[in-house]
Specification:
CATH architecture of the largest domain: Up-down Bundle
Low-confidence stretches: none
Distance between the termini: 24 Å
Radius of gyration: 22 Å
Oligomer: single chain
CATH class of the largest domain: Mainly Alpha
Shape: globular
């Protein structure tokens, strides 16, 4: 999967910028605050329909403009797709080959990305919600079943929470309706649990190989920690476990006025297996950073396996905090794949010339991009 063309209109500090991208490595060089990261943000929105930086649309639209447009031409094998997202204060509109797409689920996965940013340390350091969000984004790109099921689960979750409040405040309300909602919620939860477990298992088959290649000889693993005790991920076993949980803790959930058990409260941890140490508490900042990089490099193979094509790799200034040896090890690993990478950096110092000899190199200055 490759982006061959990118066009930004009234997006951040770009009035109207068109780029032709190379099929392998693309490097955007420039000082800070010139617009390098804005290019990666635009690609992220084109792929996922939302930014990895902000949630509020007007922050994206250029000052004094009513809307912003991102267009991209994506090539997957011999299939060429023209993607377009129009962003206004009120809404976003999506188009594929000039046809408007009403459902986000029908748009996502036409461009798959894996993005590295300087803020990736938050994946380990921050709350479980950040790690769940990463898992949801990645699974939604490779599995339409997951995306649809997760959306349906959230709608049922909202309905169940609202009805728990009604039951708490109204003694004559009918609990039968809650049982119906709970059964439907369980059906969706089972699919989410199974797909998350499968994905984490695939990660663990590969992640240690990458970590040892760029870091040390610790045995790195990712541990999936559902907030329900699960010993068997088969359908019937999961159904019985969840039925028992909701029945046993009905009064507790009633008092809280919300659903406190289920995949919306899952967790996953980065650990060193030999010592059973959670990197959040016992890993150095360097170990945490390299664990995240290893996790995302591992996903390259999984995306290829599940989608039939490599994703586009976005690397936003991640080299600034790495020593020379680790920079070049990462570039060597990326170079092993027929993958398009889009990299931002302030300079090319200490990057081996053989890694960038065929790269497309662009200079970014004050919202203008020039190929060098």
């Amino acid at each position: 999967m490759k982006i061959t063309k990118l066009n930004l209109i009234n997006f951040r500090n770009y009035s109207n910028e068109s780029l032709n991208l190379g099929e392998r490595m693309n490097i955007f060089i420039g000082d800070n605050a010139q617009g390098k990261t804005n290019i990666l943000e635009a690609i992220t929105i084109l792929a996922l329909t939302k930014s990895h930086r902000v949630n509020y649309n007007p922050n994206i639209i250029q000052f004094n403009k009513k809307k912003s447009t991102i267009k991209g031409v994506v090539k997957k094998d011999k299939i060429i797709s023209k993607l377009e997202i129009e962003i206004s204060e009120e809404a976003k509109k999506f188009k594929i080959n000039k046809t408007e797409i009403k459902k986000v689920a029908d748009y996502i996965a036409h461009l798959n990305i894996i993005i590295f940013t300087p803020d990736d340390l938050e994946i380990i350091k921050a709350s479980p919600n950040v790690r769940r969000n990463l898992l949801n984004i990645q699974l939604s790109q490779i599995s339409k079943t997951y995306l649809n099921t997760y959306n349906q689960y959230n709608k049922l979750l909202k309905t169940r929470n609202e009805y728990l409040k009604i039951l708490f405040n109204n003694n004559i309300a009918d609990k039968t309706y809650l049982d119906v909602i709970t059964d439907k919620l369980i059906e969706k939860a089972i699919v989410i649990y199974q797909l998350r477990k499968e994905y984490i298992d695939l990660i663990n088959l590969r992640i240690n190989k990458y970590y040892n290649e760029i870091a040390d000889n610790e045995v790195l693993e990712v541990e999936y920690v559902p907030n329900v005790e699960i010993t068997d991920y088969e359908y019937e076993a999961l159904r019985k476990t969840l039925k028992y949980k909701y029945k046993k803790y009905y009064l507790k959930e009633l008092n809280y006025g919300m659903t406190i058990y289920g995949p919306h409260r899952d967790e996953f941890l980065f650990k060193f297996k030999t010592t059973d140490r959670d990197l959040k508490f016992f890993g150095s900042q360097g170990q945490q950073k390299l664990a995240i990089i290893s996790f995302k490099l591992t996903e390259i193979e999984i995306f290829k396996e599940k989608c039939g094509a490599y994703p586009v790799l976005l690397l936003d200034d991640i080299f600034s905090e790495l020593d020379i040896a680790k920079r070049n090890k990462i570039l060597k690993l990326v170079g092993n794949y027929d993958i398009q990478s889009i990299i931002t950096t302030t300079d090319l110092k200490n990057i081996r010339k053989n890694f960038i000899k065929d790269a497309f190199i662009f200079e970014v200055k004050a919202g203008k991009v020039e190929r060098k």
